[in-house]
Amino acid sequence: MKLIVNADDFGYSKGVNLGIVEAHTDGIVSSATMMMNMPGVEHAFRLAENHPSLGVGIHLVLTCGAPLEPNVPSLTDEYGAFRRGQAHLADVSAEEVEREFTAQLERFFRTGRRPSHIDSHHHVHAHEAILPVVLRLAERFRLPVRYPWVFGQQRGDHLPVPTTQGFSHHFYGDGLTADTLFGIVEGLSGCSSAEIMCHPAYLDEELLTGSSYARQRARELQILTSPEVREYIRDRKVQLVTFNDIG
């Protein structure tokens, strides 16, 4: 099986960035996705330059921080920040979403790099009101997309852009162990290609004050870099890849 272990939230903060890179160099993370509107993004790109084996995609954002585009009122609150949660997504302007996502993609391209793929913060790309916009942009820029698992389909074979056959968001939350990860890998073993989402990080002030999912990230980092996990992946001949390696 080709397995992508993708660390979300690259660019959120220096602590997140350093945790992701360590989970790559000393663990099983093979890919990460960049939040183009967050304060740690330039630091993340500098780290990525020094670690070319780490695939770097884009983590499209509608629910954290502030937009890059001006005048997107259906997406923002009274302070100009993105509105939290997803209850409002059914009623947002598709034109505003497309402008904002295009701005995030274009900021990525201006770094001189090409994203390996598209996914999103809080899985907004899989929302029924947002997915058509994402697929349009993925086709325009010829980029793979994280499989929109919330639709309940078992395979991604029929999407108009490349994706993996399997995806798991279950390496998340309290009480994670190496056995949690092993169970996820076993559950995906029937797929020729699959992705596991993760969020490793070192805790810093930005993360502790800005995210409700903080302490658990340090636990993820410990598991993803453990000798036990690295040995398990090696012994089962799982091929750790990036979205550049799937077609």
TrEMBL record:
Cofactor(s) the record lists: Mg(2+)
Q: Which UniProt keywords apply?
A: Carbohydrate metabolism, Hydrolase, Magnesium, Metal-binding
In its UniProt record, a GO molecular function of this protein is:
chitin disaccharide deacetylase activity
Q: What is this enzyme's EC?
A: 3.5.1.-
InterPro entries tied to this protein: COD_ChbG_bac, Glyco_hydro/deAcase_b/a-brl, YdjC-like
Q: Which residues bind Mg(2+)?
A: H59, H121
Q: What class of enzyme is it?
A: hydrolase
Report the family membership: Belongs to the YdjC deacetylase family.
Q: Briefly, what is this protein's role?
A: Probably catalyzes the deacetylation of acetylated carbohydrates an important step in the degradation of oligosaccharides.
Q: How does it assemble?
A: Homodimer.
Any idea what this protein is called? Carbohydrate deacetylase
Q: Which gene encodes it?
A: chbG
